[in-house]
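so my prof wants the structure for this chain in the C-alpha cells format not the other one, which i didnt know existed until like an hour ago. anyway here's the sequence
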Amino acid sequence: MIIRIIIDILFAVGIFFIIAGVVGMIRMPDTFCRMQSSTNIVTMGGLPILIGCAIYGFSIGNASIGVKSLIIGIFILLTNPAASHAMTRAAYRSGAKMDEKSVCDEYGRDKIDE
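here's what i got, hopefully its the right format
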C-alpha cells in the first residue's frame, strides 16, 4: 500500500512538471527559452515517472522493468544537457532571433571569436 502511494506521488510530480513545461513552451517568447522548457519537461517530468516505474517493477518482482527504467533515466541524465546545448547552438547558428528583452548573448560572443 505504501509503495503504491509513493509510485502515485512520483507519477503526480512527473505529470506536474510535464504540464508546467508545456505551459512554459507555450508562453516563452523565443526559441532559446522554449528549449529550456523542453529540457525541463524531459528531465524533471520524465525522471520521477521513470523512478516510479522502477519501483513498480521491483515491487512486483519483475526486475527487468526496474532495471530498464533506471537505465533509461541514467541515459536521460547523461545525454539531455549535451543534446539541448547542441540544439540551442544549432538554432543560434541557423539565425533564430533572441527576444529583445534578452540581456546576455553568450553565443554571440563565441561567434565573434570564430
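also thought this was worth mentioning. The mean pLDDT is 88.
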